[in-house]
Amino acid sequence: MSKVSKSLSCVLIAFSVTAMGQDSLNLEDLKAFSYPFNILEGEFVGAGSERLKAAIAEAHITLLGNNNRSVLEAEFTNALITELNQNDYNTMVLEVGPGAGIVLDKRSKTSRKTLSNLKALNQQYTLNIDNRRVTPIPDFRTIEAATYLQNAIKNEWSFIAIGTDHWTGVKLLIDELYANVSEIHKPVHLALYQKTRSELDSLLSALKGQKNEDLLLLTSAIKASSHYKQFLKKMSTIPGNRPLIEALQFSIDYWWMYGNKEFYKKNELSSQRNKKLLTKSLIDRKFDFSKEKLFVNMWRNHLSKGTTINGFYGVGNMLLELAAFHGNKSMSIAIARRYYEEENTIKDGVDSAHFKWNRFKELIPLGQKDEWILIDLRPFKERYFYGPYQLTTAMHQLIQGYDFVVIPKTDRQATIND
């Protein structure tokens, strides 16, 4: 045997001995870091709540990663806003798209009208596609979501809108552009506006579904429309319309890339744009990271520390580093459900055919039907990174990516506000 072969054999034997000496994480190991809690009358109670409240009191930036737009996700968000409000938070970042953000700002000036204004918005713009109702701003399609927004507005919070406007909101943004035209000049643009609007109605009503090929047909037709292009050109001369036009154009391009299955490109552009939008908004409002506090409510995969599941450094990582740069603490929470109600039957996500692909699959079995579970990942680094344990790639990413994972009790679909 050559010297090289002998050396390689020694390395492999040493690795095997080391690996054999390592334990794999099991559910009992993880239970030691899970804490039950509940939400009563909009506030956190129980052992887990005390741990969560202590972390909130220390943090200047709190990141909440949602996933299902469900009843309990909205309920948790609402209770979190109440707790954050008691700790001097008053600014929230939403992932609804800057165009939708302008609309929400207009229609949510007072908390008393938030529910009714969003209901009117949904009634006017909801589409029925393949027997499914899709709303113009999906994150605020439900009564429960409108309730947490109302809670923030009642406490005089302001919000920043980033993300990509949904393709279902294209008519809404077209209407907003025309609404910004002065009354004296509206007749000049009326015919072009009506032609553009009518063409969009036809394109949307022809949709058979929401698959890649459906959205590719829709967005390709919009991009090719002479009425649409001419309308945007005319609207760009109206004061205040440029942010709406940028939001609309990016949205159509983004959903065209989605339809064309250019996933890497759309995700890269979206990640960079989100950071730019947030940076500009914080600079414009002279946000002071050394003193002020910020709450971010987005899809959970965008808020992890390090790289996202898509392989990019996202908003979450940017804000976590900014908090550290200014000598403050941050906190990142991800929601991952187990039990949920569907068609009057309680189902267990562990039994799903897709569960093996779930990146939270090692934690989700800790979920309970009748109480919330808070898993504190913060001690995991010292105990499991530097201890005699073997970690899966998914668990390694979770420990690096989040401070807490919240597993709701039995979840259910939220109530569409229309």
Notable characteristics:
single chain, 418 residues, alpha/beta, nine-stranded mixed beta sheet, two-stranded parallel sheet, disordered N terminus
Structure description:
The chain is built from 16 helices and 15 strands. By secondary structure, it is an alpha/beta fold. Helix 8 (170-179) runs antiparallel to helix 12. The chain is globular, with a radius of gyration of 24 Å.
Sequence-ordered SSE layout with sheet pairings:
Layout: H1 3-20, E1 23-24, H2 27-31, E2 34-40, E3 43-45, H3 47-58, E4 59-66, H4 71-85, E5 91-94, H5 98-107, H6 114-125, E6 127-129, E7 132-134, H7 143-154, E8 158-161, H8 170-179, H9 186-205, H10 212-224, H11 226-235, H12 242-259, H13 263-284, E9 294-299, H14 315-325, E10 329-335, E11 339-342, E12 345-348, E13 372-376, H15 380-385, E14 389-390, H16 393-401, E15 404-407
